[in-house]
Design a protein that fits this description.
The complex is a heterotrimer of chains A (246), B (368) and C (303). Chain B contains 14 helices and 5 strands. Chain B has 368 residues and is an alpha/beta fold. About 3% of the residues of chain B have low confidence. In chain C, the strands form 3 sheets. A 6-stranded mixed β-sheet of chain C has the order 6-7-8-3-9-10, sandwiched between helices. In chain C, strands 2-1-4-5 form a 4-stranded antiparallel β-sheet, with helices on one face. Chain C has a 4-stranded antiparallel β-sheet with strand order 12-13-11-14, covered by helices on one side. The chains are: A alpha/beta (246), B alpha/beta (368), C alpha/beta (303).
């Protein structure tokens, strides 16, 4: 199994509205895959389907080798998830948060202990282990949230706008963590509004009106649209959308 | 003025587009009144009554018949002497005893005054009071029937006596209690929530940074709820009267004005809550815990105040509900006029002014 | 008269210093950007200027009026779009706009020419509740609501946060047009790339202003030579650069890494040599952007 995600004509309708329109793509293991699109282009819906939170109206998809419609529980066990809005329990300490999430994913006590020590060491927050999460700076929280999302060694981690509002240095430190995870063969599926972050991905897909309009490496996309930056690529694609709407 | 009207219009949009709030506003009182109310009336169907008819003439037997036919009472025991009354109560079968003294018919027509005694078991004061009211009403009907034929000022004097709790102390009316509680909760909760919602969504910031004065914002938010709560009060009042036979012996106008006053008190309390909380959730919690609990426990609505320790009795004085229950009972049951209820009315009025003053002081023209 | 003047403002929340000795002023008709991440103190400053919070120390004035004494007058003459501003979700576009016009004692028609450009874009959906609009449309409506009473100063707190690049671009174009109409605008944003769209910017971090200048001026002050480096294996390239002892800073920037050296320009050849085992190596001199400067200043602040 070298494909982490495979989708085939994946579609989701809400009444008459087609949020995700027959998208087909695949993501390799250990790849950092950027999932981009304007607000309301259908990113969130697609991501929810891949996480097993929403049933597709038609089409299929396999995540970590499991069917997202019929093997939801197995899918959930093998993925990690982190979003800007969901972070941690602010009124629990760092350690308690780690324990809690470890427990949810059925890690043994011994394993949780090992993982906790490792994680605290890696993030250099051993001193703050018994502090409430609410007392940590935003950047630390996000790094901690990411580390907890991959605590149970999932083969894929979904990140929904993980770096919103964070200062530029912390944002890059966060990406260091992403690179490191990918280096250990974890597949990273990420959405972002920062176009420079899009360039950090191995490959990028651009969603417009529920369809994937472009999918390639950042460099090839820029060549294809003869653009200087991903921002230009994005604007060109979005302009196609407004033209087609009128 | 135009600003103000626009504000109120907007508030009504919110209310009518939020089905859940509407449901709470009007559904909750109806359901609760019916739920609480039926708990009482069920008890009252076919309550067992013992009769000691010392007169034993045509008129007294007709009265006994009438009581038996009302559906509320079932005559189970015919007593022979006053001693047996106590025994019958002790045995636990009967809830009420009716004593008709000698020469009932004679006294009625010749002295224009015929005493009748009703004795109830006041160890369960709630149903005792209700039963007394029913029995008294039946006797009243009977009297009208008889006097109708004669057109003379005749009176049957009802002397209720509460066995085991003779001074009538600690007796309360359940229905006025429920009415008060619900009116209080709905009014206070709704205002506190609607104001904190603006804080949560951030729209309060915009309103503050507008030429609207803070007082205007509050009044604008509350006026729609005054209207709604008053309609609510009418609904609750009619339920009490038509469904549960609460009498309105006093002036209806006075009763409505008192209801209006109490709605204002509750709303101003809601405003006060909203000035000290930042989230809808907190406002809801404070309304529930801070208002519901003391009102249920300490307003004399479930537990008689007189049997409480002095500090609690004193604490009860600061509950608006306690005073409104007194007003409701006096106006509805006793038929008192404003002269008789001026004191509790003044207390409510004072509380309202106090709450509003405190809210205005607390309501910040700034965020902190 | 300068529309906004801020003098030595301090503000604490408990033990946390939200603002520390902040001073700057905004010129007439200027589009002034306050650039910094979440928690830098941007919203606190906006609330002090819109008279919603009191500063612990220092003074500020808006259109010559003191934010403490003349707060009522200020409230009548400024437009404010708070962060996380969500309008009334259950009211339609039209109802929201009319409501805000009326509470500011005016009508939509009276100032229609000011909002026309923006409003026509959302007019087709005017019956739709604000809660059902996309992020970009919500933001346009919010801007209309903040403009409808023809304010002389406009305060926009993170208007583009969480909005996609297309809507962001459109939004900034609208701001440029408003500035041409002579309205002074103070806008905050966490997106560093938006700084170049402002006339002047203040970089803020941890409640302190790190620099105030034109975007060009800020970049010009960044004196060290900087290289953009790219290679086939990015992860290894980054590892290698981080462990290189002459590296002063190394941050990812789009497809390249931006590198500065402790030895400055003199170390270029040595670096080239060091990295030569990498496949597909590209390395060239580049000039710093606002974000490079921001990170540089952050490092300085932390020392």
């Amino acid at each position: 199994m070298d494909k982490a995600i495979v989708t085939d004509q994946l579609t989701r309708r809400f009444g008459d509205f087609i949020a995700t329109d027959a998208i087909t793509f695949s993501v390799d293991r250990g790849e950092i895959f950027g999932f981009l699109g304007a607000n309301g282009a259908g990113k969130t819906t697609a991501m929810r389907m891949l996480c097993g939170l929403l049933k597709p109206s038609s089409g299929h998809a396999k995540v970590a080798g499991y069917d997202i419609a019929t093997q939801t529980e197995l899918v959930k066990k093998n993925i990690g998830y982190m979003s800007q809005k969901f972070s941690l329990y602010e009124d629990l300490t760092v350690k308690e948060n780690i324990r809690f999430y470890g427990g949810i994913y059925g890690l043994s006590n011994q394993r949780i202990k090992e993982k906790t020590a490792q994680l605290l060491d890696k993030l250099q927050i051993t001193k703050e282990a018994n502090q409430l999460v609410s007392s940590l700076p935003l950047g630390w929280k996000q790094k901690l949230a990411f580390s907890i999302a991959i605590l149970h060694d999932p083969s894929i981690v979904f990140l929904d706008e993980p770096t919103g509002g964070v200062d530029p240095v912390t944002r890059r430190q966060f990406w260091d963590l992403i690179y490191e995870a990918a280096h250990q063969n974890v597949t990273v599926f990420v959405t972002t509004h920062y176009m420079d972050e899009a360039e950090y991905c191995d490959r990028i897909s651009m969603m417009v009106d529920g369809k994937i309009k472009a999918l390639d490496t950042p460099r090839k996309l820029k060549e294809q649209f003869s653009a200087v930056s991903m921002n230009d690529v994005f604007l060109q694609l979005a302009r196609q959308q407004t033209v087609s709407n009128q | 003025m135009l600003q103000f009207l626009a504000f109120i219009k907007k508030e009504f949009y919110h209310i009518f587009r939020d089905r859940r709030t509407l449901l709470i506003l009007f559904g909750m009182p109806v359901i609760q009144i019916i739920l609480f109310g039926y708990a009482i009336t069920n008890e009252i169907r076919n309550a067992e009554i013992a009769v000691l008819d010392q007169s034993n003439d045509y008129y007294s037997s007709r009265l006994v018949q009438k009581i038996g036919a009302s559906g509320y009472f079932k005559i189970t025991t015919a007593l022979q002497s006053e001693k047996e009354i106590t025994e019958a109560f002790r045995a636990g079968h009967i809830k009420v005893a009716l004593v008709i003294p000698k020469n009932f018919g004679y006294n009625f027509y010749h002295n224009h005054k015929a005493p009748v005694q009703l004795i109830t078991d006041a160890s369960d004061p709630n149903s005792a009071t209700t039963l007394l009211n029913y029995a008294t009403a039946i006797v009243g009907n009977y009297q009208q029937e008889m006097s109708g034929q004669l057109k003379l000022p005749l009176t049957i004097d009802v002397h209720p006596r509460m066995q085991y709790n003779p001074a009538l102390k600690g007796v309360f009316m359940f229905v006025p209690g429920v009415m008060t509680l619900i009116l209080m909760l709905v009014s206070a909760m709704m205002t506190s929530i609607t104001i904190t919602r603006e804080k949560e969504t951030g729209t309060m910031e915009i309103l503050l940074v507008s030429p609207l004065s803070p007082g205007m914002i509050i009044v604008g938010k509350v006026v729609p709820y005054i209207i709604l709560s008053f309609i609510n009060a009418l609904v609750i009042l009619s339920l009490g009267v038509f469904l549960f036979g609460m009498p309105v012996k006093g002036s209806l106008l006075l009763l409505l004005m008192e209801c209006g006053l109490f709605v204002l008190t509750a709303l101003s309390l809601g405003i006060l809550i909203s000035t000290i909380t930042a989230s809808q959730q907190a406002a809801m919690m404070i309304s529930m815990v801070g208002l519901l609990m003391p009102t249920v426990l300490l307003s004399g609505f479930v537990f008689p105040l007189e049997s409480m320790p002095l500090p609690l009795q004193m604490f009860a004085n600061i509950l608006p509900a306690k005073w409104f229950i007194i007003i409701l009972k006096d106006v509805m049951l006793k038929g008192s006029g404003l002269l008789a209820v001026w004191k509790p009315t003044a207390v409510l009025l004072g509380m309202t002014v106090f709450f509003i003053a405190l809210s205005v002081r607390n309501f910040k023209t700034r965020l902190s | 008269m300068q529309p906004i003047i801020i003098n030595n403002i301090d503000k604490k929340f408990g033990d946390v210093k939200a603002l520390n000795n902040v001073s700057f002023s905004v010129e007439e008709g200027e589009l002034f950007g306050l650039i910094g991440p979440d928690g830098a103190g941007k919203s606190t400053l906006f609330r002090i200027l819109t008279t919603l919070l009191l500063a612990d120390k220092g003074s500020a004035s808006v259109m010559g009026m003191d934010v403490v004494k003349d707060y009522k007058k200020i409230r009548r003459s400024v437009g404010y779009m708070p962060g996380r501003f969500s309008l009334y979700q259950d009211l339609s576009i039209e109802e929201n706009l009319r409501f805000f016009a009326t509470i500011f004692n005016t009508t939509v028609e009276q100032n229609y020419d000011l909002i026309k450009d923006i409003y026509v874009q959302i007019e087709p959906f005017k019956k739709r509740p604000a809660g059902k609009l996309s992020g970009g449309m919500k933001q346009k409506l919010a801007l209309c609501c903040a403009l409808v009473h023809k304010p002389s100063v406009l305060f926009l707190d993170e208007p583009t946060t969480g909005v996609d690049p297309v809507s962001r671009k459109e939004f900034w174009e609208m701001l440029q047009r408003l500035r041409e109409k002579g309205i002074a605008i103070l806008v905050s944003t966490p997106y560093m790339d938006e700084a170049v769209l402002c006339d002047r910017v203040a970089l803020i971090q941890k409640g302190e202003l790190m620099d105030i200048n034109t975007p060009e001026g800020i970049v010009r002050r960044f004196a060290q030579p900087m290289w953009a480096v790219g290679a086939g294996d990015r992860y290894r390239l980054m590892q290698d650069l981080r462990s290189y002892e002459d590296t002063a800073s190394c941050y990812a920037f789009g497809e390249y890494l931006h590198v500065t050296l402790k030895s400055g320009g003199a170390g270029e050849d040595a670096l080239c040599q060091y990295l030569s085992p990498h496949q597909d190596l590209t390395m060239f001199r580049t000039s710093a952007g606002i974000e490079d400067c921001f990170m540089y200043l952050m490092q300085e602040q932390n020392q």
